[in-house]
């Protein structure tokens, strides 16, 4: 899986591992309390995941302050990029086009009573 091309790679991996935990946990109940998915992802992100890595099934989730200003900045950047993308779509490949007036349907015009 290429995490650079998939923003939800962590969620996909964790979900798949959780599914396996549920299946195998029916036969080995100690697996039901493991957290291999998050442990594997953490090792991967730190560049420590190897074929022979010893996994424990334990993972301590880090809790900390959230950078709200940073998150809002990312959201604003994404909105600006989307607005620019939409403008490019409207402008088309040759730049801004003149808008043609909308054609009225043929037939007699009926006035409301």
List keywords for this structure.
113 residues; mainly alpha
Helices and strands, in order, run as HHH
Rg computed from alpha carbons, rounded to a whole number of angstroms: 27 Å
Shape: elongated
Strand content: under 5%
- Structural class per helix/strand content? mainly alpha
What portion of residues is helical?
40-55%
What oligomeric state best describes the polypeptide chains here?
single chain
How many DSSP E strands?
Answer: 0
C-alpha termini separation: 65 Å
Average pLDDT across residues?
85
Q: Report the uncertain regions.
A: none
- Major sheet: none
Compute the number of helices. 3
Task: Indicate the topology.
Blueprint (H helix, E strand, L loop, with lengths): L8 H17 L10 H10 L22 H24 L22
Helix pairs in contact: 1-2
Word description of this protein:
The protein has 113 residues and is mainly alpha-helical. Helix content is 45%, strand content 0%. It contains three helices and no strands. Helix 1 (9-25) runs antiparallel to helix 2 (36-45). The longest helix is centred in the last third of the chain and has 24 residues, at 68-91. The radius of gyration is 27 Å and the shape is elongated. The N and C termini lie far apart (65 Å). The mean pLDDT is 85.
């Amino acid at each position: 899986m290429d995490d650079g091309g998939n923003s939800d790679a962590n969620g996909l991996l964790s979900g798949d591992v959780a599914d396996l935990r549920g299946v195998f946990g029916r036969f080995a109940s100690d697996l039901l309390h493991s957290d291999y998915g998050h442990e594997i992802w953490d090792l991967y992100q730190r560049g420590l995941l190897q074929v022979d890595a010893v996994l424990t099934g334990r993972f301590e989730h880090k809790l900390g302050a959230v950078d709200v200003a940073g998150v809002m900045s990312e959201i604003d950047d994404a909105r600006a990029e989307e607005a620019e993308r939409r403008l490019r779509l409207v402008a088309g490949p040759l730049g801004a086009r003149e808008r043609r007036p909308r054609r009225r349907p043929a037939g007699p015009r009926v006035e409301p009573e």
